[in-house]
Amino acid sequence: MSPAPATPQTHAASTAAAVPDYAALRAEIAGWARKLGFAALGVAGIDLPEDAAHLADWLAQGQHGDMDYMPRHAALRGNPAALQPGTLRVISVRMDYWPAQAADAWQVLGDGERAYIARYALGRDYHGLMRKRLQKLAERIAARIGPFGYRAFADSAPVLEKALARNAGLGWIGKHTLLLSRDAGSYFFLGELFTDLPLPLDAEPAAHCGSCTHCIDICPTRAIVAPRRLDARRCIAYLTIEHKGAIPEELRPLLGNRVFGCDDCQLVCPWNRYARVSTLPDFAPRHGLDAALLCELFAWDETTWSARTEGMALRRAGYAGWLRNLAVALGNAPASAETRAALGARAQHENALVREHVAWALAAQQRKAARGTGQGSSRDAPVV
Predict the structure, then answer these.
(1) Same domain, 138 and 220
(2) Closest listed residue to residue 223, CA positions, set 45, 65, 352
(3) pLDDT over 80 (residue 317)
(4) Active-site residue numbers?
């Protein structure tokens, strides 16, 4: 295993003369993890037959959209030992991200002139940050017991991270398909260390969604087609980030002012009353993006966009995707001369995808202006 190679045997077998106390080591690892900024840690086995079958069915239904990498590596997702030979256990960690300084999410969603960006994406991209801290955790373990086999992941390889985190005792998979914790809600990132250490396993917790369907009911595009079943082709997070083509016209009005991701199913979840605010400054909002005006963001040229999204998850959409998403939000915004002027300035954009969505948005704005209404797309905060 990499980055600290082990022999073909497991660590336990290769050090049979001095086998560590793995229960005590697991407790030490949890303490080191907390010092590195991880809010929780658990240990899972590597058997995932039911989750692999669920994934296969989801793929067979085509609900992954055009994320071609999903079926390409499906076999590895359900088999950690195939992804990383020698793996016996998976150390799963949680890192809270909800930014204390961010503007109120419901207020932004209710203001059709402002852009809503999923709260996980307002600050630093977590992928590199988490991998570096997982690497440090592995180095601390090696300093304690000597070289061992491991590999760190943070949404960086075909890993069923939610299933592994569930099996590691960090929570259960909610009806919105996200991991939920009784004492931390769902506003957190997950990361993993695949390892050859035979650490004691944690117990999978019971699910506590009960009869609640708030997440299903709130979804603007009805992407949660059944409990724990998400059709990515209708999901706003997929449409505004992963999807690189045109957003289906029938879904555009439903996006409202959501320009990168969507938090609705989490915002209404009763368990997020217990969500933890992040203590890491890395996740604080940058450049006022927690409540920025749509017209101002739409005016960014590519150089400005590149500079202001450096080191952020927003880069994943690409500049053309960013303009596409903003154009849809501007089409959904209250009718105004300023909005029409902003759109008109991009009407002849060099990118055909941008031009198409600008034309749609201009038509939507003109229809609202003709009706004499300034009505935009907004939503009041529900009572939960």
Answers:
(1) yes
(2) 65
(3) yes
(4) 155
Helix (H), strand (E), coil (C) string for 366-382: HHHHHHCCCCCCCCCCC
Mean pLDDT within 306-327 = 98
pLDDT above 50 (res 124): yes
Torsion of CA 29, 31, 32, 37, to 10 degrees: 120
Same-domain check for residues 343 and 197: no
d(CA 67, CA 238): 9
Any domain includes 113: no
Going by the DSSP 8-state scheme, the letter that residue 213 receives in this structure is: -
SS3 of the chain: helix, strand, coil, percent, to 5? 45, 10, 45
Highest mean pLDDT among 16-30, 322-336, 368-382: 322-336
CA distance 117 to 258: 6
User: Is residue 252 situated within a structural domain?
Assistant: yes
How many domains does the chain contain in total?
A: 2
How many C-beta neighbours within 10 Å does residue 223 have?
25
Q: 184-229, pLDDT tens digit by residue?
A: 999 999 999 999 999 999 999 999 999 999 999 999 999 999 999 9
CA 150 to CA 132: how far, in whole Å? 14
Q: Is the pLDDT of residue 376 over 90?
A: no
The whole domain housing 291 covers 229-263+285-371
Q: How far is residue 247 from each of residues 66, 219, 284, measured CA to CA in Å?
A: 12, 17, 30
Rounded average pLDDT over 272-280: 94
